[in-house]
Amino acid sequence: MLDLVDKPKAAIRVGDTEKVTINLGFVDLGHIDLLVSESVYANRSDFIRTAVRNQIARHGEVTRQSVARKGVELGLRRYDKAELEAARASGIRLDIRVLGLASIAPDVTPELARAAIASIEVMGSLQATPDVKAALADRFL
């Protein structure tokens, strides 16, 4: 099992990444370690991040078509208390679709989240308080 916790360079800050654990065969891991020892990559995580980015780029057209078809927002999308209160006040319930990081502000109550959010689909990561996540549990697609 490979644990992706080592972080190359100071450019990556806490909160910029999410830890993922994968299983690799000994031969694959040996190849990675060889490339690291030859200074092709800074460390195992650097190799794996590069491999992931290459595959994402390779399938970029599929991603673009899917994002356009599904109306997904790319990158970081923050939902603050004022935005959710405005949606609730106008009687509009949000259908949240994010590829990247969706963040619901810590001061958003579970009651406000339920009143303002009709559905939520996050391909990536959702940052919200445990109470808000629990309140929205039946709205995840």
TrEMBL record:
Superkingdom is Bacteria
Q: Which Gene3D superfamilies match?
A: Met repressor-like (1.10.1220.10)
InterPro entries documented for this protein: Arc_rbn_hlx_hlx, RHH_8, Ribbon_hlx_hlx
Q: Which SUPFAM superfamilies match?
A: Ribbon-helix-helix
**PANTHER family given in the database record:** BLL4998 PROTEIN (PTHR36215)
Q: What is this protein called?
A: Arc/MetJ-type ribon-helix-helix transcriptional regulator
